[in-house]
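Q: What would this chain look like folded?
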Amino acid sequence: MTTLRICFAALAVLLASTNAFIFKPTFSPSRLVLSSVVELDPIDLMCIEDVAEFCLGDGAGECDADDMIATENQLEDQTHILHKKIEDISTLLFQLRSKFGIEDKGEKMNPLSPRLSYKRQLSSIDLVCIENVAEFCVGRGRDECSLEDADALVNQLKDQRDILTVEAFNVDSLLKKLHARTSVFSKDSDDIDSLLGSISNILTMDEVPKVGPAVTTFDIP
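A: My prediction, written as structure tokens:
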């Protein structure tokens, strides 16, 4: 309970800094992320997820409308960020594999694997750095990057994409439950279904040329 109180306090601070109570953004996969939206680090996002699960479970009677709206707003902002990052990484993976002839090994993704732990998730700055190197290698620096360089980039980017995909699936699942719980946001449920369907395709389909190779399976042992 102490941990949840800390999470609620952190949520209040985050919302105050982003004016989350002033308006509720339209939920659309194509919505531009507002400049005021703060990308949460993995620990803070996990904290918000814990609040959502608490409000949907044992703490349903302790969470008021403001708590529910605040949690939804934060999760919606984060899912848009996650989906955009997944799309960008998938595009780079496809370009690297195409340019350097790197075979997609089609390894199964186990969401419980230590490889996909948030502890191995790169910071936003580190991820952007790797993406910049990848863009250099598929662009004007093609002749300066070796096959080994490209293969290392593919492995790094694939790990990060898989971590983000699992996180996005978790966030979207929570949003679907929150929207079903609150009738005022029922109009958003179709958008959540669409995003969940999109992630399911990423987890089950073969390589998608438009955005790059996707994870082939989502098996939980």
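Residues 2-22+33-204 form one domain.
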